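Feature request, filed as a ticket because there's no other form

It would be nice if the structure record came with a short human-readable summary line next to the tokens. Right now we just get the raw output. Example of a typical job, pasted below so the devs can see what we mean:
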Amino acid sequence: MLKKTLFQIHWFFGITAGLILSLMGVSGAIFSYEAQITKLINPDSYTVQAETRAKLTPSELFQFFKQQQPNIEINSITIAESPTSSSVVNIAKQGERHGYDMMVNPYTAQVLPEVKGKAFFDFIEQFHRTLTAGEFGKQLTGASTLILIFFVLSGLYLRFPKKHSLKQWLAIKPQLKGRNFLWDLHAVVGTWVMVFYLMFACTGLFWSYDWWRAGMFKVMGVENTRMGGKGKPEGRPPQGAMPQRGEGHQRGAPQGKNPQNLPNRGPDSEQQGLTLPNPLVQQELTQAWTGFTTQVAREYSTVTFNIPQQADGRVKIAFVDAVPQNERARNSAEFNTQNNQLEKVDLYANKKLNQQIMSGMLPVHRGSFFGPVYQFFAMLAALAMPLFFVTGWMLYLKRRKQKRLTQAARGGLSAEQAALTEQTWLISYATQTGTAEQLAWATGKSLQQAGLGVVVKSVQQLTAQDLQQAQQALFIVSTYGTGSAPDLAVGFSKQLMQQPIDLAQLDYAVLALGSKEYPESFCHFGHAVDTWLTRQGAKPLFKLIEVDNANQKHIQQWYEELGEVTASDVQQVEIHKQFEMWTLSKRELLNSNSLGAPAFHLELQSTVNVTWLAGDIAEIQPQNSIERIEQFLKQQGISTESMTSQGLKIVDALRSKNLTREIIAYASLDELLEQLPELPLREYSIASIPEQQYLQLVVRQQSDVQGHLGLGSGWLTQYSDVGTEMALAIRNNPSFHLIEDDRPIICIGNGTGIAGLLSLLKQRVQQNRGRNWLIFGERQREHDYFYQNQLEAWQAEGMLQRLDLAFSRDQVEKQYVHHRLREQAEVLKSWIEDGAVLYVCGSIQGMASDVDQALQEILGAEQLQHLRDAGRYRRDVY
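Raw output as currently delivered:
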């Protein structure tokens, strides 16, 4: 429940605050390299031609600009140690809180070109902090930053499996496709950047909330001395200190021109705001410069002299080491002109780590505090922010799409069903592969559109009270296997149908689904339900209707009968099979030299976006081979070049026709075609998940007594060529769907039954749920170990906790999967006690019945039935 709640909150914040965080990430990545970019695009402002003479001293620059532009107010002067670096004169200017930096030639005092990009980076900075939306934007970015911490911690928790490897956690798997790849990208890259995002968030909140900032100072054990006039931290140094950007090198104005918006102070206006006369300022700057260069005893890259404003004989100095740790790694000192000594030297390198962090929060935030390599990766992590927003949205949309498809499988019946009263129609279904359920919801929709109240329930949900309360009921039931009830209806069959219930008040009708390809058991369970209802005193509304392979004519008869008994306009709501054209893109023999029939790995691809769930069924429209068609035409005395009235070659018209029917006399090719029904569909368990971007089947060749290949297996494995297009529809198979939580699963199967189990295991791996147990059987390990590399890789990665194999022909006494079950009886009981869900896929004759018997012996018939009723014993057998 905790994981589910965290997941819901995670994705909700992801598709809302994710956009804000994406914008903050991109803008922060750009702003983190502001100094480097500014220098790169302004070489004429930052660099000059080196000369053999010495650079102008701060006193000389002060004197020069006071003579040239006596109205300006100079705050500080910065000199660079490098002979090719420009000097900076910081002056007061309206609108510039920290002054205006004039870049000047250090040898001639010529004002260099103004630095380009200031307005752009000012905008980026404001956008990053407030989205340029003022106080509201600041609150929005602050809240989003708090959410980022939740993203990191909840994402880590949601991803944490019981067993894992570094490869599983940190390696992107490019072989994945679709949703699998999106999830993997989202999760793996999220793990990579987790530390960066926590650092961004924890330091970014320093500027967002006073309580967070105060807490950081307290946790770090540093006295908070950086509070401004209203309790806000100073984001930049005060006027006259070394500027933050570009190590004091920033903007300039053309020589001989007063920079725009400079204050118009006259030469007599209190010495331009200073309390010291210009000659005394020059004298103190000269003395401070000489004393600093001779006494500093430390290599430096730049040094900034604040213009003295008090008659105390002290000049404040800020200087940066030759190789600074970061852009805020400044040293400070004072030069006492009265004793000619450098005093109060405070070296950044001598500060404790906690003091360095709290005095340079911006470098910590952008990553430069930890060096250029870390800063580069931090920038990449910031740029990756939109990746999580985009992939999160795509995953969300895919979930929504899948939800719509699930709702569509219910036939569009309104959620506002009537309560079960005497006037409502009770519609109950028993399904194994989903067809009966779809027909039940379609029938319900049809009756609802006719103005009747309906309640739709599966038979396992029915109670004796439901049946005794209802006045009219419809039963839509499938027959499974050799005449049995579908798995989820076994409880109804063995319990409710064994009880005597007075149903004299009930009028009912039964729609029985089956296949005449199995004549001995055709619609057997439907007839059993009909007989039982009659014995309980219920009265049939009309005679039971049999449906052969979802034949539309039989289903139409059902709707016609309903229209008569309800005296309503009941229209048929057709269940449209969504056939798409798929291309056979790959076919590989899986069991070369096997004692058994050849089994093939098939991959099909579609040009449209088709989705399905693990456990679903692919319905293939097979086609006749050219040889079979030519043989039929020869028997009928028809040329292969003959054309139908629609202009279609007869060979093409017969591709999907059943050529085994007895033919009566016909006058034209059209009359011949009317006699031939379509070939029945063939169903195969899907072995892939949509994220793989292809549909995978595992098909074994089947042959009749004459050695002719089966209709579906022959078409898929031999008669069609790679590149052939074929019609395929996905059928929802809810009785074999994967559970939605992280309970363990036990997959049991043999032969090509591995297909349905593979899809379940792939989905579990995609979800990072590793409590999976596979019991698989075939003939020989050397030839029939299907997907060995895949299974053993999952086992090595901790995604398959147990793998038990049974190869029947590798020893004298044959061993099958039910033997492995009995051998692991105690382990099986332990897993079941832990909430495990059983999935069985493969042949119903032999394997499935033997497994069922073994499970009854190990768990007991009562517990096994309980598992079946609770949806913890699911089968896809054939």
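Something like this underneath would help us a lot:
The first strand starts at residue 74 and ends at 80.
Residues 48-113+236-352 form one domain.
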